[in-house]
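User: Before I run my own analysis I want an independent prediction to cross-check against. Here's the chain; please return only the structure tokens and, at the end, one sentence I can use as a sanity check.
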Amino acid sequence: MVSEPKPAGLAHPLPGAIGLSHLSAYDWEAADGVCGGSPHLHLVCTEAYVVTGGRGAVQTLSPDGYRDIPLEAGSIAWFTPGTVHRMVQGGDLRITVLMQNSGLPEAGDAVFTFPPEVLADPGRYAAAAALPPGTGPQTAAAARRRRDLAVEGYLGLREALVAGDNGPYLEFQSAAARIVRDKVPTWRKLWREGALATAERTGAQLDALAAGDPGHLGEATAHDAAPTRLGGFGMCGRRDEYALPGTTLPYQEE
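Assistant: Structure tokens:
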């Protein structure tokens, strides 16, 4: 019996076509005296923190209010699209990040909580969000400025939400959706090649097994990889990345 053709997609995706990286939370102190990362949200991706060492917290803003979730080795926290999140350093916090929809976060599925006047100007937003290449002092300084600007907007959103006013938070979500709207066609392509293709491949394999055809098992193999960039400047902290399509780096370098 001949197996049906497999759906096209990434050649060797991680299980479930997830994204993967490792983070060490920033220890830069922000305006409110807290050390941590740049608050932001994702538009279509759920993100999970798997804590591998140290301690800290993740602060979140969502329709159900403000939360401060403690993090310690062995704990897991995850947040759905639209949840503003800010990683907070408590002491040598180290995290493995699992991202839904491989490739989308690197294709722009994240918007910083910059102040409203920055969000309203696409050019100004892009300039504030961009970092110089590399991992040197210039990049570190730009990442810290970006973090501080995101915290500035975040503190206003949090203050209003805690006071029972979700208007600024909802306005931020709307602004974030406007910022990414033009990227949706690219996201759709990456989703089809990654997460959707992986799910469809499972369906084809189930169909084959139901028909008594285990032919796809003849292609069984193993893969391995190691981080190819250490100490990059991510949104939440210093990031170790893998040069695998759909893992942490863009499908195409810009």
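Sanity check: The chain is about 30% helix and 25% strand.
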